[in-house]
Amino acid sequence: MLIYIRQWQEKIKPQAGANPFMIVLSWLLFGLFLVVALGLGLIFLLVGWILLLPVLWRKRRQIKQMWQFNKAAQQAQRDAKQRYQQQRQQASDRADDSVIDAEYTVKNDDTSR
User: Where is the segment annotated Disordered (predicted)?
Assistant: First the structure.
């Protein structure tokens, strides 16, 4: 790894006979490219966040509708259970009035012999 780093250092180091103006210009150009790339990255990030807002709004609305539907379904289930219990209670009350509880015995029938 150290050999690789030293090779890159040798490539980056300006040569002894290089024009100082070209070295400064190349560093300024590199800095300019870096700033442009950073600016484009920030612009893409902001555009992504802006485009994410309608998606989040739509998902929030869908979740809210699902929550309301679930709440209504639970209420309907409670109402149905309550109606069923009321119907059973009414049916048992009506059945008690019309049924006579008694014991009976079967007498032997002599005619059947």
Answer: 80-113
- Over residues 73-82, the pLDDT tens digits come to 999 999 999 9
26 CB neighbour count, 10 Å cutoff: 13
Distance CA 113, CA 98 (A): 37
d(Cα 82, Cα 75) in Å, to the nearest integer? 10
Q: Residue 76 corresponds to which tokens in the numbers above? A: 């309907």
pLDDT digits (tens, 9 = 90+) for 64-100: 999 999 999 999 999 999 999 998 888 777 765 555 6
Note the helical H segments in 1-113: 2-12, 20-98
